[in-house]
UniProtKB/TrEMBL annotation:
It comes from Aegithalos caudatus. PROSITE patterns: PHOSPHORYLASE. It catalyses: [(1->4)-alpha-D-glucosyl](n) + phosphate = [(1->4)-alpha-D-glucosyl](n-1) + alpha-D-glucose 1-phosphate. GO terms for biological process: glycogen catabolic process. InterPro entries: Glycg_phsphrylas (IPR011833), Glyco_trans_35 (IPR000811), Pyridoxal_P_attach_site (IPR035090). Allosteric enzyme that catalyzes the rate-limiting step in glycogen catabolism, the phosphorolytic cleavage of glycogen to produce glucose-1-phosphate, and plays a central role in maintaining cellular and organismal glucose homeostasis. Pfam families: Phosphorylase. This is Alpha-1,4 glucan phosphorylase. The keyword Acetylation does not apply. Residues 738-764 are annotated as: Disordered. Keywords: Allosteric enzyme, Carbohydrate metabolism, Glycogen metabolism, Glycosyltransferase, Phosphoprotein, Pyridoxal phosphate, Transferase. Belongs to the glycogen phosphorylase family.
Amino acid sequence: MGRTLQNTMINLGLQNACDEAVYQLGLDMEELEEIEEDAGLGNGGLGRLAACFLDSMATLGLAAYGYGIRYEYGIFNQKIRDGWQVEEADDWLRHGNPWEKARPEYMLPVHFYGRVEHSASGAKWIDTQVVLALPYDTPVPGYMNNTVNTMRLWSARAPNDFNLRDFNVGDYIQAVLDRNLAENISRVLYPNDNFFEGKELRLKQEYFVVAATLQDIIRRFKASKFGSTDSVRTVFDSFPDQVAIQLNDTHPAMAIPELMRIFVDIEKLPWDKAWDITRRTFAYTNHTVLPEALERWPVDLVEKLLPRHLQIIYEINQRHLDHIASLFPNDVDRLRRMSLIEEGDTKRINMAHLCIVGSHAVNGVAKIHSEIVKTQVFEDFAALEPEKFQNKTNGITPRRWLLLCNPGLAELIAEKIGEDYVRDLSQLTKLHKFVDDDLFIREVAKVKQENKVKFALYLEKEYKVKINPSSMFDVHVKRIHEYKRQLMNCLHIITMYNRIRRDPAKLFVPRTVIIGGKAAPGYHMAKMIIKLINAVAQVVNNDPTVGSKLKVIFLENYRVSLAEKVIPATDLSEQISTAGTEASGTGNMKFMLNGALTIGTMDGANVEMAEEAGEENLFIFGMRVEDVTELDRKGYNAQLYYDRLPELKQAVDQIKSGFFSPKEPNLFNDVVNMLFHHDRFKVFADYEAYVKCQEKVSELYLNSKAWTKMVIRNIAAAGKFSSDRTIKEYARDIWHVEPSDLKIPPPNEPRDAGQDKTPNGTAA
């Protein structure tokens, strides 16, 4: 979520008033804003996407709740010591959190372990351990529409009789100390992005958020006029018409068996009716196609922690496989491929398969990704129910990612086309008629230059390096991962360095290359990549022949509040994943909206950015998905490229020989060995095209006017990438609710008594 103060002032239309009032008190609002900690309750794009979605849902007047865990410690703070990443705990609640309100009156029990007892009256899950879920509510204001939605985060609390109702009453002190065991559930965020770690505590977290949330939703449904009771029992027929639940990846997949458990075991619905309601309630968003990221929980672990849920999953699977066998008799391989249970040394539950079977809609997050989901990853399921599979291209909120972080540009745009674009970003197309307006071109360039000077001052303060603000700011910020190919950027830096040294007199377009992002603490290769970038920076930044032509900076502790500073100052956005690996990307959209040009592969949403702006207005290079597939078929041989490309050979040899690590010449052996022998992401295969494309970038940068015109064409084409558009598509195609642009009256105005306060429609 990042910081809340400035976003709240903007959405309430109070920023100028607050700035002025605080100034009158002799304080500086910007200084005050810098004191607030980021709420870093997610890892990368998936978590930030949810935050943008909350802003858009409130702005579109949808009755929507965001549910998650109130981690005591969020994503770690990254320190760089001697070029290495070091993790520190993110104690973000140390000084309290003024935006949250604890709601103990809505506390709910969550059960773990125990056993299942079957009787004539049905299954009973008994002898369980109980943990309480305490909700904390954070308001989510819409933009200038007097709507305030809720983000409800659950915190784990031990019941007061925890460990005291047992036989060990003798050790009262130990029993109280053991409360920590239960409360550890919401202690810390697992810091993996695009990687599955099958730990028991993680599964507990996933079930904890799901069980508490579903009880909350059902409590709200029963209290509404729709949860009519038929003598004793609630009638749930209208449940899917009143409730839509969107699963943000497979992490909350246990919601499917949990809702079935509630309906069948507790509410005593017949299985078929319960299953029909469940499927119509859930929809699933897939966020990655990387096999190592797919959640596959060991059956033994689920059986121990959630024995009833395992039985329900088996029953879902049995009925699912019976259905497929009836359609494809004797096709045992299809049954194996489509089963929710994977056989092998350890039996595992494929959570993506569970989500597909238990949902009425499945979507990818960019056109190319949704195609890959349909035709490759889940092709058997798509063949069975093609109408279930959809695309919903990701977006970003223009409130935080333009108004808040780039007020100069936002104001300049408003002068030309009015202020309405903030709620309807498609209006940016009106900027096309100013592409040749010399004054506008100069003003756009001036805003960018001011942002660069401001960020350069920040860098000089934080990193003690002199930055040339007229140099091209070449920025690569995102989680560190092999598929995102920070290594390819690094090879380009080394190549530029070698060219400067080879011919110091030759014209060179000055660059400041900024790379930032966190590596998962257990991801050895990602940590080596960070060390390599810092080792290269050390050499480049201290070579007198290079001077101010080339500077390399590793941005420490990249997070939302730092993104808000660096993105408006960027000239060139690096989006260079191997085609077919980045589901969408959203940083790419933020840079586009803030007047940077993109160098990128035809991957994720880059494809649609090129479609909107015209491919000639992005720097597109490298293999397409088809080329990658073909190269896999032939077999990728890194040595071939190394032998054929002298500049690549030189760069790799320098890394290998210890040129960048003279005290430890073998330091980067693992990296070089990976590049030659098991590089799944084919860095060498795209190196030549990347370097040539970078030359075109430098050439255009020399012509400031032509560069800025291309920038304007990009901004004018960025409208599609508003999360408002994305949410309208979810609302219409999946949730079946209509967004409303009605501004509800402010609380100080009396409401029209005739108005129905709860307009009919689904809550998402």
